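Bug #77: duplicate submission created two jobs. Keeping one. Sequence:
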Amino acid sequence: MKKTLFILPLFVFLAALLSSCSQGETYAEQKDKEYKAIQSFLDRDIVVRDADGNVVCNVGKIEAISEEEFLEQDSVTDLEKNQYVLFQNTGVYMQIIRKGTGEKLERGKTARVICRFVEFNILGDSIQLRNDVNYWHPSPDIMKVTNNYGNFVANFDTDINGGGAMYDRYGSTNVPTGWLVPFSYIRIGRQDSQEEGIAKVRLIIPHSEGQTSAVSNVYPCFYELTFQKMRD
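Kept job's structure:
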């Protein structure tokens, strides 16, 4: 009788566990869905639109290249071919639209960088957040970026304006790791004339390199970003 009483609750526990697994996706299934969504995004002729149907950016059909090809091209992505370089160790795809003005952030140095962006949820197929609109112009997202001898680290600076859109939405000063990938290749000066343009990139970032919500809910995002050094 005692054996029967012991086996019964164990059976109920296992049944409940199997039921909960069948109702929700496993992490492996979520990652597989994310991978397929990114591959589909690469192959589609994507036009990102806002809620009113206005075109925000034309992503197009993407040609992915390897890091080796990227370096052979002097760390440039061919815009006519709509190339993005895939960094295999992180799964981040990057297109450099403009390398920017000024200089790269030197080793051992720290700089405050103003960033404006559009965040597109690839799984949700919609714009999730953006700060390139009038509402956020007085309070842009400011990153405090350090080149730790080749390893870039950063956090959102909330001391100056209380934080921008990313801090407001996600409640964290953690900068998505994927946002730091371009800093090895871009310059972060200021625009001193109309002929110059600040650094501008496009990124496809898997959840593991993304913001806190993407990490928790396992979804990839596309970003169009500009970076400009803040005045001292």
